[in-house]
Write a structure and sequence with these properties.
16 strands; five-stranded antiparallel sheet; binds adenosine-5'-diphosphate; alpha+beta; five-stranded mixed sheet
Amino acid sequence: MFKSIQWKLVMMFVLLVISVIIVVGIYLSSSVTSFYHDDFKKKMDRVFNNDDIDFSGAAVSTDQLDKVLKSFIGMLGIDTYRNYFILNPLGGVYQSSNMELAGDLEYTPNMIRAMRGKKTVDVKNNKDYMDYAIPIMERGKTKFIIYIRDEKNDLNEMTSELFNIILKALAVGLGVSMIMGYFLSSTITIPIASLTKKAEKMAAGDFEQMLEAKSDDEIGKLTNTFNYMASELKHTLEEIASEKNKAETILLNMTDGVMAFNVDGTLIHANPVSRNILNIQTFDDKEANFDEFFKSLNADISIGELIYLDNNKTLEREIEINDVHLKASFAAFKVEKEKVGGVVVVLQDITEQQKLDAARREFVANVSHELRTPLTSIKSYAETLLDGALDDRETAVSFLKVVNNESDRMTRLVKDLLILSRLGDKQVQWNKTYFSMKKLIDEVVEKLTLSAKHRKHRLTFTLVSSLPDIYGDRDRIEQVLKNIVSNAIKYTPDGGEISIFAGCVYNEVYVKIKDSGIGIPKEDLSRIFERFYRVDKARSREMGGTGLGLAIAKEIVLAHNGTLSIDSELDKGTEVTIKIPVA
Ligand code: ADP
């Protein structure tokens, strides 16, 4: 309480009033004292320093002098406390207005001066009394001394009365100053208290209330400035919050992992993706230091080299964790102008990209290989022909047949590649219509009956249930059926059984192509739809296969929102199922 401004202001008021009253009191008391002395001296001078009044005539005897003095009692103000004495030149008392006091007289400077024949110039200002002495001369010698002595009782009474008045004034002044001080200081402290409350609320995050500036003075200006500061602060904080929200939303929803470490290497932030990739659940369970953390991931990097990295430079490392390939980009971030605050790490999952790259490389290698084989063959036959085989007509014809076959194979390969590439690029113009699947299967069976017959296969088609029309690209679906039935014919030893079943279940038309062929080993089944994947390359080539038939079929079926599955048992046979939803 005693530390409050209000208390200090009240104390200032009180001290001010006390000092004013003390100063006034001292001034008054000294004024009264000097007035009393002056008055005493004036009265004495009026009688004894007056040329009109001559005491020498009365100086014949003490009685005469006493008589004269008695006549001046009024002018001299003689009373109980002010008395006159008629002294002999040695200070002995002849006569007095109060003879009882005669024995108490002592030598005073004024009395001694008078003994030497000199009049009083200064009234003796003694604590206890004032005095005045006039020598009455006869023939140059002091005959009598008129000595007036005032006991100062009136002055003392007056002074104590004055002291009482001052004390009362002091008491009243103190009361008034305390009350005034309290109320006047309130005009300062109340706005300050409201400002303080508001500052506390602001510190707690509440920027809503505005203070009313009730005056135009410094407090009013302070209030207005405070209101302005509050609104600016609110605005700035809102901006910061919105930026923070934006950043958080970005971090939360971005597909890359983002982590931040401070300069001593402690993890300070990890977005959900990074936690997921690196299995960080909470900050506590991974208090790992940056260096230890990335060392454990076999990434050759340290926080030290990053902190001294040039502006806008990043370092990149590849990390592998649980079969996930990550590209980690490291950069230092600054908190002040030149002060590095820590390191940000962005983790990109490049597993898919790497797989894609590998697949692309493999695809290019496969294509080159597939093209090189017929080309080598064509080249070698052509060279043999040029070397003379051309002369042997029979050999020449058989060689040219091979060349012709090989170029057909290349044509097929290029055609299939083109189809696949278009399907992959989604460039295919789908010519979708409603058509009858049954009719389409009938046509395919009819078209392939001849090649089945060549291999002495029995090719049958059984309609399990009636088929509704389906919506799709008839030519492409025909290609799918042809690819699969051709495979069944190709990979079934002569005299095999190839049965086609078709039906409709739950709004889905299915076609099953079952053969009694060589089958596919279990380990190859999962890869059978990959481009160029063949169980037995030589056999496939021998049969004129490109290794792209099933891949093309799968792409087409997927584009019709359908599924293509294969089930097979080695040396027993294969069953391929196509399912296409009825539109
Ligand atoms: P290909 O042109 O070689 O026939 P596909 O993509 O049509 O290419 O087939 C890929 C591979 O799947 C074939 O090389 C073959 O090994 C195997 N395959 C496909 N259909 C059958 C089937 N009905 N019976 C046995 N193996 C098959």
